[in-house]
Amino acid sequence: MTNFLGSAYLWVKAAHVIFMVFWMAGLFILPRYLVHHQDGLEDPAEGPRWTAREAKLRSMILTPSLVAVWVLGLALAANAGLFDGQPGLGWLHAKLLFVVLLTGYHGWAVGYANKLAAGRPTIAASRLRMFNEVPALLLTLIVMLAVVKPF
Hints:
The protein has 151 residues and is mostly helical. It has helices at 9-39, 46-80, 90-117, 125-131, 134-148. It has one domain (6-148). The chain has 5 helices and no strands. It is elongated, with a radius of gyration of 18 Å.
């Protein structure tokens, strides 16, 4: 399937980058929402407000962007020959590993939002604030691999 995208390649790549930016914007803000949600659990009026904000963020930005990033990214990977055993794609294997980890982080954040919606925080506020940095670290590694292609 190598090079099956033909002249559409650059359009697919551009869409992949655009939806990646949307997804990352959501992943940068959701953990901050979680911190505020957890801090606001003492006020009975605040919890439902944060739950609604988080649900809108997930349904309007996070989930659609996640799906688009994966679909477009797999199309680009297939175009590069990942599924044909094309040599020299070690960087892409590593990038996919980090994207899988980022997807897992996304799932964890959604799961923790659900715990907060049920009024069951399980992480100290200081640790939750540290988890805010995970998307930035993973994004840095993913972009370096995609741009530099070191191996």
